[in-house]
Amino acid sequence: MHELSIAMSIVDLACEEAESHGAPGVDVVYLKLGPLSGVVKEALLFSYEIACQQTPLEGSKLLIEEVPIVVNCPACRERRSVQSIQSLCCAECGTPTPEILEGRELMVTALELRQ
Amino acid sequence: MNPEPRLVEVRKNVLKQNDILARALRERFREAGVLAISLVSSPGSGKTAFLEKTLTLLHTRYKVAALVGDLATENDAARLARSQAPVKQIITGTVCHLEAAMVQNALDGWNLRDLDFLFIENVGNLVCPSSYDLGEDLRFVLLSVTEGEDKPLKYPTIFNSADVAVITKSDLAAAVEFDEAAAKRNIQAVRPGMQILKLSAKTGKGMDEFLEFLEKHRLRARSAAAIRT
Q1: β-pairing verdict for A106-114 and A25-33
Q2: Which chain B residues are within 8 Å of A23, Cβ to Cβ?
Q3: Which of A75, B8, B87, B190 gives a 20 to 30 Å CA spacing to B67?
Q4: Which of B9, B10, B133, B190 to probe by mutation at the A interface, max A CB count within 10 Å?
């Protein structure tokens, strides 16, 4: 399990951002999480609380938006979703699609700063 | 009453530090003309045996070196040192994967220009290493015939993060009734178009094709480096 070290990176990143905006802390961290990031949502939420202890993020919330895998289907020539993470085929036409456009996200998108 | 919280847009990758270091490593490898290859797999799938065989076969013709990740021991480095190639152990302690910073630190004192191939053996783990770019040119994911054909479906992310799949311990395939077609189908399902090699480090079968594959990629890396300089 590497979610604790990921959670600590999130806390570090948020602390830096808060400091650069002159805020004393953070209330909410918004995170985008793709299925191909290799990070499990539940384990991350559990680790996050621990990682926040005795930091300016103590008591803050982590809001995770889970985003789907998006591929470029070579047959449809369109952005498409896939059948599943176990079957990277275009959900519309069934063509195997190795070209992944989205789904690896592990990104802090926004923060609600404490005033 | 508390004032309204202030919402600010950030849009930063959580692993940006690792990504920055990995990019710098990739650039260093490219400039030095060394082909960097990492190996990931579950524990016990034969990474070290495969690497030992590879180093032994390559080191008569090329300058090769290896970094080996392990949670606690230096056993793998000792085994690999028998190949005569320079080997450094990265002991990760409680960390279940390698990160770019660990690779960077381990390279201290090595001149990459003296090398043709650098191998990086990750900690045996099919989950955590998938999140971390190490700056490698190629990532090989190993699947031994004794593990079961559905490993790719159980761990799609690591297969997806890799460039090439290697089926190892092929000498045991018949004994464990390994269904090669099913394994290949599952690999293709989670990573369409992925190249698959099959070999046995013990008997040496399939190693020639693997070495040819490496040499081809090294030439490509070399010519790319030459064009840039």
Answers
A1: antiparallel
A2: 6
A3: B190
A4: B10
